């Protein structure tokens, strides 16, 4: 019985922590994820996916030299791969096949100019 109570409490703590992480919003109003000391904020403007990069101190971080950038989008039962291109000063952008629905999942991967890879996961609210 004690193990069941401890397992339930641990699960509740993990769920609470994950919800708190999702609530983080960036200066552009989108959700923010930290990956390898890079903060990535996702916004959608019409049918364009926009990712903003910032450093630990909140300063915009250049996206120049980013390679292998793509987003995998799962929305309304369909999966799309979006090629992302750099846009000065600190953005990656890509054309969505249509409006991004609530609950859509977006996984972004890229290799930064310094050679390390990043991956960020978002749920559109």
Description:
It is built from 1 helix and 9 strands; from the N terminus they run H-E-E-E-E-E-E-E-E-E. A hairpin with a 2-residue loop joins strand 4 and strand 5. It has one domain (2-123): Immunoglobulin-like, CATH 2.60.40. 17% of the residues lie in helices and 45% in strands. It is globular.
Task: Tell me the Rg in angstroms.
Answer: 16 Å
Query: Given the helix and strand composition, which structural class is it?
Result: alpha+beta
Can you summarize the main beta sheet?
5 strands, antiparallel
- The strands making up the biggest β-sheet line up spatially as 1-2-3-7-6
Assembly state of the chains shown: single chain
Assign the CATH class: Mainly Beta
How far the N terminus sits from the C terminus, by CA atoms, comes to 38 Å
Describe the structure in brief.
With 125 residues, this protein is α+β, with helices and mostly antiparallel strands. It has one helix at 2-22, and strands at residues 32-35, 38-45, 48-54, 67-75, 78-83, 85-87, 91-95, 105-111, 117-123.
């Amino acid at each position: 019985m004690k193990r069941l109570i401890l397992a339930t409490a641990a699960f509740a703590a993990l769920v609470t922590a994950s919800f708190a992480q999702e609530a983080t919003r960036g200066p552009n109003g989108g959700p923010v994820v930290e990956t390898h000391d890079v903060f990535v904020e996702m916004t959608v403007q019409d049918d364009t996916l926009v990712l903003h990069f910032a450093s630990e101190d909140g300063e915009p971080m250049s996206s120049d030299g980013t390679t292998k950038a793509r987003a995998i989008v799962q929305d309304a039962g369909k999966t799309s791969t979006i090629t992302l291109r750099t846009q000065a000063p600190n953005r990656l952008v890509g054309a969505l096949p249509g409006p991004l629905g609530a609950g859509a999942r977006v996984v972004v991967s890229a290799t930064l100019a310094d050679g390390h890879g990043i991956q960020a996961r978002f749920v559109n609210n």
